[in-house]
Amino acid sequence: MKCEIIPERCIACGLCQVIAPEIFDYTDDGIVLFVGEPEATHEFIPKDQQTAVIESAKRCPSHAILYQDS
How many helices (H) and strands (E) does the chain have? Predict the structure, then answer.
C-alpha cells in the first residue's frame, strides 16, 4: 500500500501519530510527516502497519492522509 500525506491540509490534531506512531510523526508545529523521512510526501507502508494507516486516514479531520492499495 502507498500512503500520501498532504502537510498543507494538516490541522495538527495529532490523531495520526496516536493511531500509527510507527508511521507518522509531526513537526514542531504539529504538522504530519513520516517517521524517519521528514521530507517525503509518499511512502510504501509495510503490511503490518496498513490497518493503522487506513484508520488514520479515515479519522483525519482535514483529509491530509491518503492511501492507495497496491
Answer: 2, 5
* Residues present in the chain in total: 70
pLDDT tens sequence for the chain (70 residues)? 999 999 999 999 999 999 999 999 999 999 999 999 999 999 999 999 999 999 999 999 999 999 998 6
Q: Using alpha carbons, list the distances in angstroms from residue 47 to 12, 31, 56.
A: 26, 25, 15
> What's 41's DSSP letter?
S
The reported pTM is: 0.92
